[in-house]
Amino acid sequence: MPTRLSKALVSTTNTNIAKYHWQSQNVKQSGVDDMVLLSKITEDAIVDNLKKRYMDDYIFTYIGPVLISVNPFKQMPYFTDREIELYQGAAQYENPPHIYALTDNMYRNMMIDGENQCVIISGESGAGKTVAAKYIMGYISKVSGGGSKVQHVKEIILQSNPLLEAFGNAKTVRNNNSSRFGKYFEIQFSRGGEPDGGKISNFLLEKSRVVSQNENERNFHIYYQVREGASAQQREALGIMTPDYYYYLNQSGTYKVDGTNDSKDFQETMEAMQVIGIPGDIQTQVLQIVAGILHLGNISFIEAGNYGQVESTDLLAFPAYLLGIDPNRLQDKLTSRKMDSKWGGKSESINVTLNQEQANYTRDALAKALYARLFDYLVESINKAIQKPYEEFSIGVLDIYGFEIFQRNGFEQFCINFVNEKLQQIFIELTLKAEQEEYVQEGIKWTPIEYFNNKIVCDLIENKLNPPGIMSVLDDVCATMHAKGEGADGTLLQKLQAAVGTHEHFNSWNSGFVIHHYAGKVSYDINGFCERNRDVLFPDLIELMQSSEFNFIRSLFPENLNTDKKGRPTTASSKIKKQANDLVNTLMKCTPHYIRCIKPNETKRPKDWEESRARHQVEYLGLRENIRVRRAGFAYRRLFSKFLMRYAILTAETWPCWRGPEQQGVLHLLRSVNMDNDQYQMGRTKVFVKNPESLFLLEEMRERKFDTFARIIQKAWRKFIARKKYEQMREEASDILYNSKERRKNSINRNFVGDYLGLEQRPELRQFLAKRERVDFADSVNKFDRRFKSIKRDLILTPKGIYLIGREKVKKGPEKGQIKEVLKRKMEFGGISSVSLSTRQDDFFILHEAQYDSLLESNFKTEFLSLLSKRYEEVTKRKLTISFGSSCFRLEFRVKKEGWGGGGTRIVVFQKGPGDVAQLKPGGKTLSVTIGDGLPKSSSSLYRRTAALLLKHTLRSLSSAHQNGGAKFPRGPHNPQADITYSSPQKQDMFKKDIKKERKRPPPAPKPQPRPQGPRCRALYQYVGQDTDEISFEANDVLDLVKEDPSGWWTGRIGGKEGLFPGNYVEKI
Hints:
Helix content is 39%, strand content 19%. The chain has 1069 residues and is an alpha+beta fold. It has an 8-stranded mixed sheet with strand order 23-22-21-20-26-25-24-27. A 7-stranded mixed sheet has the order 1-2-16-3-12-6-7, with helices on both faces. A 5-stranded antiparallel sheet has the order 35-34-33-32-36, with no helix packed on it. A hairpin with a 5-residue loop joins strand 33 (1038-1043) and strand 34 (1049-1054). Helix 11 packs antiparallel against helix 12, helix 17 (470-479) packs antiparallel against helix 18 (486-500) and helix 27 crosses helix 29 (861-876). The longest helix is centred in the C-terminal third of the chain and has 46 residues, at 692-737. The radius of gyration is 39 Å and the shape is elongated. The protein starts with a helix and ends with a strand.
């Protein structure tokens, strides 16, 4: 299909085209859109450019294909359906930087190249990564098609966000909606590009938040949602009290978040569970587990003779009730533990009573395990609802916790920052290191650019041996731990000092150690490292939960406790290391795209720019090096075979396949589009194109080729469909006026064109319509005001309503004195009450609307009324009232109220007179229209009748030819008039002449005589003839004008063929 871009280029001959381009629609230029174009490549210049754009509310900026996004801390206005339409199918340079452009590029690359795509969204906590992921999923959902099943998948994909945010996000000191887990969401697509499946992988839920939070932070959102949003009956059943009652919520003293409506969010969470397909009884048990954890946290312990015992046994009953377990067993398992003892080759189980500290630890371990397993169940439920058994294409969206530096950084921050370090390594590997190495391998001239490679930091953390990394040392210490205590953490610090103490990115201090991350130095408090890394859930607690009366809770603990345990238990650090490396492997198999999110301040306020904070992020994200590599390197590289496959259509020699060496085929293509030699280099296996503009040139040429072929196919198809459609429309339109209104000559059998203004090439008129808004009818009409003064208006009918467009002189501003198009009126279908016409052959009609009426005159009123009736019925579900003037030929209409005067009414009187052209005589509040008699009211289309006669005659001729071996013609003239009650003078007579011509043997062709030069006209737009008696022409063709007709259908001659065409498609010359 013709694209927006090709239309724009075709129209560049119009001198006024620039004023309709997006860049000229009052878009303020702020800095540079793509920082590759910066005059100076320094941190100062980058920060200054980002600040300028941020202050002007432009949050997106490019570095080549990498998108930089600055958190605005407010809702921006450019995420509507209009922007989705604007960016769909557009090249990157066509529109300002936007996350929709990157998403559309991913989606199209997946469809064109048949390769999986992924987007890596990185940045520190609070930089806007989760919101970016939501916009990506929302855009894909909007632009991809699909039936009811696909729509259901889309709904689940979108609904998974509020559900996982409720259970996985929390307020931290740096972010009110911080993701406390990592998520890689793969949206799976069919071959047709419809999202028909998906899969979520989740990483390292911050379980410790369930039992403790820092000051000014909150637990996971779901706890506060239940408190604020649950019904009174639900709260009573769950024993929900105020948040300050619960130990697991009151440690931070923070319960509310600005801009967060916990009650509304709770309804969205429950709705999401419903959409995903979680049954109602399971939803109830999910809430019971959430509430049960809160009540569990209120069980406290006191020290009694070195043993821990429950301080208030009354507090055991409610959590036991909610979790479906026996309160006595709960008390027993919280204060004692079964241990296996081996002696002399024999093993026996003994019960060990716990002290107060161990009892607290056991309670918290149970709470964390319940919550983590519940979260895994929710993720699995989403996957079961949308995962398909086989994979075709996919787009992966990585939304993972940002880099974190707090006052106190513990084991969780260590794991989070390790994953971010791995993601930074991918970025370096693919955008800085691999790119430069590729130039060397391919033999491209290249001057290396220095950059910091953080692989040294990743190795410091995850190395197994020589020297062992921090995680290996941590696992060794945990393997020798027997009980909880500070001793293990102290041992860890000593062993780390011995193993990596001399590493340039490691330092130790009295309470922990420091790592020099890519984002800066982070001090980690060693306290609790070993215990949190062990992440052990004792068999006693698993056994306890397996005794629950609820099947759902039992299903969360599927372990078989009777099997022998061999080898080391899996630690938290080994899990996250495996997950991080699996994630890296997954991402490396996809074509990666990058969004680098920047947090401009710590106040979370819009338009607040902290220079030092922004500069620090620009430095550690490596944006300067990224720009330098992008600027010095090549924007695009492709294997010769893939390049040939994509652009083969550009030349006859390469399409459908190139016969010869691939490299020569690529060179042939590049020369065919006249690309400068300095814009590309040929490698050993790939072609490298330097500037994006050169790539856009190739894409544009390819688009034009497809556009041309699409037009040829469309032309043939439309011609076929149009004939069928317009035959039907003509009959329907004729029925509207049948027996009610006299008809004009030539109006009954004429073809319907619909667009008589050529809107495809009239951007000054299309600007008032929505993008891709279909045009049913467009014509230049006469509109009469209260004084019956005739004014030209462009009348456009679309599925959304009726537009009346006029012209006015600009009175001020830079365009003062210019004539510009103005939308004078838009009428919604619901506001139109009826249409009035006279019974004579005139072209007047009145649109009656709620506010005031419009008196219009159009040659193509029948076609307009036919299309209006259809659209009106579709929208309002009722038929349009069309009334015809009374016997005294009088119509009345209301005029617009102006100033202090009332609106009032005006009258149009129709009188009989000579001629087919209406004579107008205004007088006061009455307009007299005098016009001669037209064709009878009972006139109808003769198309079907004549077509049947022609078919009958043709069959007779074919039959004679078959019998006698030659064509036979009847001796007596056959008169079709005898079979017809009434005939239309012009177009029908031409039809009959064609039949008569067939009956006589044609004489020898006479010698061509020089024809005298008559009136001529030039085509303004392309016209494709819809019938045998019409001619076709291209824009700018010159035609001989044979005859003008008031009906609007003129007769002309081109290329030796004479026929009809719409008069408003040409201009006289």
